[in-house]
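Following up on my earlier thread - several people asked me to post the actual chain instead of describing it. Fair enough. Here it is, all 436 residues.
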Amino acid sequence: MSTRRLVGDAVFTGVAGESVIPNGVVDVDGATITYVGPAADAPDPVDRLSENIGGLLMPGLVNAHAHTPMVLLRGSGDGLPLDRWLHDVMWPREALFTDDDAWWGMALGSAEMLAAGVTTSAEMYFFEDAIVDATTTSGARLVMTPAVLPGLHGHGSRDEQIRHAHERHHDPDGRVTVGVAPHSAYLLGVDRCAELALLARELDTVLQIHLNETAAENAALEARHGGASTVALLADAGVFDGAVLAAHGVWLDDDDIATLAAHEVAVVHCPISNMKLGAGTARVVDMIEAGMTIALGTDGPASNNDLDLWEELKIAPLLARVSGHDAQSIDPATAVALATSNGGRALGLADVGRLASGMRADIIRLDLDDPAFVPTIDADDLVTHLVWSASGRHVTDVWVDGRRVVSGGESLTIDVARAAAEVNQRARRLAVEAIA
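Reply from S.P.:
Thanks for posting it. Predicted structure:
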């Protein structure tokens, strides 16, 4: 890749507390950013291909919890509570998935995310080889955490599959890393979660787990353990001793939050999925005040129903403000950080989620000529507009590892029309076969 310079009308690094840079520059050498700052202070542009693209340049968004191949199930089971939604609709159809189904679902979903400026996703799913291949084709960044559910694999066989996936695909210097994903304590039990956490630590990788998504999900588990909370049970079993990404975290009490904070567990807030399934409202402000890393996720496109993280970026602070009756909860800069720098940190990707020298060149451009950004009296007004009025439709161009994958709003890597046709055909087959 050549050394290039992107010149924007404004640059935002994605870090709360840092101001927008008017007439900003981002220099990229291969896959790495080498300079971010005012054009007037930029290094000598010798041997740099300079592109004056205007607009706002900022980090790509990080979707820290997703089940993207579920685009084949988008809209299915609407109105059902989580337990019935899973048992009656999702799992019967997912049991019929093939590798090709997962490939096309991931390809279409990845293209959807990239078009909205989501450059990284953390996937909890099966068919890890197909998902890695589809994402490699799309050009996105991927944290693949192979899912573990009871009854689908023997303990040893699934553990070996995860080890092999890690050996084949885990590349911290590239665009794919591989973790471990026990679905939940209420389905697998504490001991099995502890086994998988040990595997994650042996592989020196992240563990992703659903945690306290609904009020009732842990009742039976906690009753078997004398009423101890699921968070306490997992902590005592060593599940939180490594790098852990806990999805949802809706039903946490003060002791749970203190325990998670002490173990440096990152929580992925999925507000739209939680609202759609009637799960509840996570105590995000309390978790932030406890020093926890909070990131944002869409969850699956069957429970959201899209993969546009901008909606989470807006809804998260709105929920915090209305539930806390406080219009100062989660300011716009903090909200953007939840979707960028916090996401990278939560996933163990220290060089993802910010625009700064030495970081990965995951960059998106937004069109500032759109009325959503008018008026802009001060450059920092742009951050407010990003949260309250921007959306994925304002993203025009996307780079991942310095490679342009979206130009003028169009995918350069995935034939979106073909992918949509494949997903539509395959989704119809699954719907019919599941009730046959």
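The chain has 16 helices and 20 strands. That should answer part of your original question.
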